[in-house]
Hints:
alpha/beta
Amino acid sequence: MKPKIFIDGEHGTTGLQIRALLAERGDLEIISIPTERRKEPAARAEFLNAADVAILCLPDAAAKESVSLITNDNTKVIDASTAHRVAEGWEYGFAEMDKDQARKIASAKRVA
Length: 112
């Protein structure tokens, strides 16, 4: 079974670029919220919780809201905003930061 990836904010600049890169990979399943439902918290929660990995390409406030909608402990979150960069429980997603950072990122449930 392919890991399910949900890009919250896939229609913005960053989301479009990430989607294009991931679409080339045959080992992933990208799940997309219908355009007309993308602002509905219930719909976003459904997709966020169905994903193995949720990539947040949103402004800070919206990224915080998305995280609050996640109840699935198995959903890994990668946040491209600055909302969680230094938040407790989040790993900073800069692998070059120190020699163990790539390992920390790989094992983290929350990466910013």
